[in-house]
Specification:
Pfam families: F-box-like. The protein is α/β, with parallel strands linked by helices and 438 residues long. It is built from 16 helices and 14 strands.
């Protein structure tokens, strides 16, 4: 109104000169302000008419605290905040924030959600940092899920030690609440936790007919007998991930029995905590039984061993499909890989030493006829041997990640020439990976 009054005064002052033009200017200003106000009201109206499905989709991307803030905007948004569909799949992020306000807000808000929506939660994961407080908060929430019937549960530690620092009795008690009350768990990821054999028996007793995926690497309180109990009773298992010390001939034979469905993925972490650690040997007959029962299963093996600890491995044929060496591995071991891993699909070697792997790479190309992906880090291979390897594997090499420092120029190829020759055999443009200069 003040602007309009000022405009009218300006119009009166100039009326002696050109009254029609001044009136037009005032009317134009009023019209523009009216249109801006109408557009703003229209925008608010559009947000109010946002379809419920779209509103739910937006809410699903918001962290818990932001969802709570959004629910206070209007009645419709508050209704969306409490719709069962919003809480079927949820991740509890339990990091320790710097703000004490967030620390005070999150537990109360989580209690409200559990009280109202515990029977709606089905696909739940807990992401915690390395602090014991975060892991204990996760256990407290698990203990409250009495009315839940979870289908999936994931306990994710973004950094160690996390759950391993929680008193074992507290963790087991909280996990048992879920195992007893769910009765329909199909996916369970509990890596780096103090889960033990008795708790696995509770899991089997209540969820044996539904469990399909179990990931439990780095669980020191579980014994081979505990994981064998799971394999004996959970006949629908499709994916299994565990440490090598839990792998046994009895376990493979149990997974190969007629009553068991075909396993699709078996991941084994072979980790050495101390140099010189002893590792047992798995019989070839046990692996053969596994392949006969599940001929298409993927065997993924991650090795984090010292060079002198590979004695029990790759002396006989092993049906590994994906092989990763996280520490230095000798030429001898890679030579055995070329002879005894005919199902190999992917190979990653992070380090080898300063002796070229020419013969070993050619042997792998010759015997591992399904190899389609390879990565080499701190190794050495002559350019000629590498070209020969690519020529033997042909265009089935869909992934070829080789650091430039790996390739050693020789009398036949230089580093400037090799990418043309390799590209020709791959059927696509290829360059070696380069180490960033920063």
């Amino acid at each position: 109104m003040k602007r309009m009054k000022g405009a009218e005064e300006g119009s009166n002052s100039s009326s002696s000169k050109s009254p029609p033009e001044a009136r037009k200017k005032v009317r134009k200003q009023i019209r523009e302000e009216s249109e801006a106000l109408a557009a703003s009201e229209s925008l608010d109206c559009e947000w109010a008419r946002l379809p419920q499905e779209l509103l739910l989709h937006i809410f699903q991307y918001l962290p818990l605290l932001d969802r709570a803030y959004a629910s206070q905007v209007c009645r419709r948004w508050n209704q969306a905040f409490h719709m069962p569909e919003l809480w079927r799949c949820f991740e509890f992020e339990l990091n320790q924030p710097a703000s004490s306000y967030l620390k005070a807000t999150h537990p109360d808000l989580i209690k409200q959600i559990i009280k109202r929506h515990s029977n709606h939660l089905q696909y739940v994961s807990f992401k915690v940092d390395s602090s014991t407080e975060s892991a204990e908060a996760a256990c407290d929430i698990l203990s409250q899920l009495v009315n839940c019937s979870l289908k999936t549960l994931g306990l994710i530690s973004t950094a160690r030690p996390s759950f391993m620092e929680v008193p074992k009795s507290h963790f087991i008690s909280a996990l048992t609440v879920v195992f007893v009350n769910s009765k329909s768990l199909s996916s369970l990821k509990i890596d780096d936790t103090p889960v033990d054999d008795p708790s696995l028996k509770v899991l089997v007793a209540n969820n044996s007919d539904t469990l399909k995926l179990l990931k439990m690497s780095s669980c020191p309180h579980v014994s081979p007998a505990g994981i064998l109990c799971v394999a004996d009773q959970c006949h629908g298992l499709r994916e299994l991930a565990l440490n090598y010390h839990l792998l046994s001939d009895e376990l493979l034979l149990a997974l190969s029995s007629e009553k068991h469905v075909h396993l699709e993925h078996l991941r084994i972490d072979v980790v050495s905590e101390n140099p010189g650690q002893h590792f047992h040997t798995i019989k070839k007959s046990s692996w053969d039984a596994m392949v006969r029962h599940s001929p298409k299963f993927n065997l993924v093996m991650y090795f984090f061993l010292y060079e002198d600890e590979f004695g029990p491995f790759f002396n006989e044929e092993i049906p590994v499909t994906h092989l990763y060496f996280g520490r230095s591995v000798s030429k001898e071991v890679l030579g055995r890989v070329g002879l005894h891993c005919p199902r190999l699909v992917e190979l990653v070697v992070c380090a080898n030493g300063l002796r070229p792997l020419d013969e070993e790479l050619i042997r792998i190309a010759k015997h591992c006829t399904q190899l389609s992906a390879i990565g080499l880090g701190e190794c050495e291979v002559s350019c000629s041997a590498f070209v020969e390897f690519v020529k033997m594997c042909g265009r089935r090499l869909s992934q070829l990640s080789i650091m430039e420092e790996v390739l050693i120029p020789d009398h036949k190829y230089s580093l400037d020439e090799i990418h043309w020759e390799v590209s020709k055999h791959l059927g696509r443009v290829w360059f070696p990976d380069m180490m960033p200069t920063w």
